[in-house]
Specification:
The protein is of the alpha/beta class. The protein is built from 19 helices and eight strands. It has an eight-stranded mixed β-sheet, sandwiched between helices. The chain is globular and about 75 Å long.
Length: 504
């Protein structure tokens, strides 16, 4: 990647607001169209291509139905086998060779304030008037000198209710580290566009993102500074762990917490241990400003800009490490809201993989064969397998009920036995991994939810199917996640003194 976009981002601070907005929204796509998820042609042309592919597939199925269907199922079974073995290897590597960087409280506080670098915290928020006061209080509670900290609340200019709530929370005190940056309306209306504008208007040597509902551990910034000083300059980003503060709200939040703890305690560290590209989480990733600018910052057209940035950092020769600090978020407690959020994540994973796979030879040269395999099995396979799982469940149910010969024909021995092994051993391993992880995370009370997690997989499949449809019809549409649904947790907080890592 050349440095054109990096130079434009560096020079943008002296430009006018219109030029800054244009750069934040379109600069990356204009400079690196081959790495951007911005639609490259009229939507109708994409739909025509998809329709043509479907017609060809239907035609082949009509002509040679048995061969086509059995071959397709065989491919998915093979992908499922490879993905299951890959995840088990990631867990093994994380357990036996955990690369997470641990920084003690004493080490974090030992750095004199005068030696701490300037730190930028970006907090994008949209339609969040109910939680913005907690955001302001929580950012002020960060254990970092205010004269070396800038917190930018990135609020849409037409979101008058949230802006008013933020101004009320800030009051008349302008001496604190927090200020409002209004993001003018315009397409794409996405979190990464707001973050790009915030980056242009910031000055920190290190940059991180917190979401509106986040409760970062107060020492997290200090821990990140110490950890960055331990590692080489090729480590561009430290990903902190994410978990949930309202795990006990209902069964959905319990499942979500089990999944997140497994993801951030085992799967991502396992990827780091293997040297594979890391799809970053959407918050609490601490990034060196120079590296962030060098790779072009965030793609405003990608709905999982975090995952895309992690892959792009790997392609540019940078590394990501795990930071032993936890940010607590609000787990989605409403099933419909959860499906909206998860479908955006799945759509973004597919989007990111398709973008980076446009030039497979260049991708292989930059991240290696192992890196490409990791991307296929972790980034692409996650939503794809979730989307096709209902087909296998339906065929299994049909076979159990009626034993039709057509189903038997679809599963010759080379497909049937590996598929059976994945269904039984893979599913069992996934459940046991969840149970083991909650015990390792000190949350044994969630073991019951982990044991019945196959019910959670049904929601994942619904979200994945929705993601595939939206990838064709609305690729850059950012489906808003509603926050502030953790009513039980809020009521408890009202009667509970300050907790470590919680927003005041």
């Amino acid at each position: 990647m050349n440095s054109t976009i990096g130079q434009r981002l560096t020079d943008a601070g002296g430009q006018g607001p219109d030029e800054q907005l244009a750069l934040a929204a379109h600069g990356f796509a204009e400079t690196h169209p081959e790495l951007s998820a911005r639609p490259r042609g009229p939507r109708r042309s994409r739909q025509v291509v998809v329709a043509a592919v479907l017609l060809v597939a239907i035609g082949l199925t009509v002509l040679r139905p048995g061969l086509v269907l059995a071959g397709s199922l065989g491919i998915f079974v093979l992908l499922h086998c490879a993905t299951t073995l890959h995840r088990l290897e990631l867990i093994r590597r994380a357990v036996h060779d955990d690369p997470t960087l641990a920084v003690t409280d004493v080490e974090a506080r030992a750095v004199p304030d005068a030696e701490l670098p300037r730190y930028t915290v970006l907090v994008p928020a949209y339609r969040e008037p109910a939680v913005i006061a907690s955001v302001v209080a929580g950012m002020s509670a960060l254990d970092y000198p205010h004269d070396r900290l800038e917190v930018l609340l990135l609020l849409e200019a037409d979101d008058e209710e949230t802006i008013a709530a933020a101004r009320s929370a800030l009051g008349g005190d302008r001496s604190g580290p927090t200020r409002i940056v209004e993001v003018p309306p315009g397409e794409p209306r996405t979190k990464p566009k707001a973050c790009n504008l915030g980056l242009i208007r910031s000055s920190g040597e290190f940059v991180t993102i917190f979401d509106a509902e986040d409760r970062p551990e107060p020492l997290q910034l200090r821990r990140a500074v110490v950890a960055f000083r331990r590692v080489g300059v090729r480590v561009a980003c430290l990903q902190a762990r994410l978990s949930y503060h309202n795990a006990e709200q209902n069964i959905l939040t319990r499942w979500f917490t089990v999944e997140y703890d497994t993801w951030f305690r085992w799967l991502l560290p396992g990827l780091m241990a293997t040297g594979a590209p890391i799809p970053l989480g959407g918050t609490s990733n601490h990034i060196r400003r120079d590296a962030l600018v060098a790779v072009g910052a965030w793609d405003p057209w990608n709905v999982t800009e975090d995952a895309d940035l992690g892959l792009r950092l790997a392609r540019c020769g940078y590394r990501v490490a795990m930071l032993g600090s936890t940010t607590e978020e609000e787990a989605n407690s409403d099933a419909i809201n959860w499906v909206k959020q998860r479908s955006r994540w799945y759509k973004g994973y597919l989007q990111s993989f398709l973008v980076h796979a446009r030039h497979p030879v260049a991708l292989t040269r930059q991240v290696g064969v192992r890196g490409v395999v990791g991307m296929v099995l972790f980034v692409a396979a996650t939503p794809v397998l979730a989307a096709v799982n209902p087909l296998f469940w339906a065929l299994t149910g049909l076979w159990i009920v009626a034993h039709p010969s057509a189903v038997a024909a679809l599963f010759p021995p080379l497909v049937y036995y590996p598929g059976l092994a994945v269904w039984m051993l893979g599913g069992f391993a996934a459940v046991i991994a969840g149970v083991a992880n909650v015990r390792a995370a000190g949350k044994p009370h969630l073991a019951g939810a982990a044991l019945i997690s196959p019910l959670y997989w049904v929601l994942m499949s619904l979200a994945a199917i929705k993601a595939v449809v939206q990838l064709v019809t609305q690729p850059s549409y950012w489906e808003k996640t509603t926050h502030g649904l953790d009513t039980t947790d809020r009521e408890l907080d009202a009667d509970t003194p300050e907790r470590p890592g919680a927003m005041a």
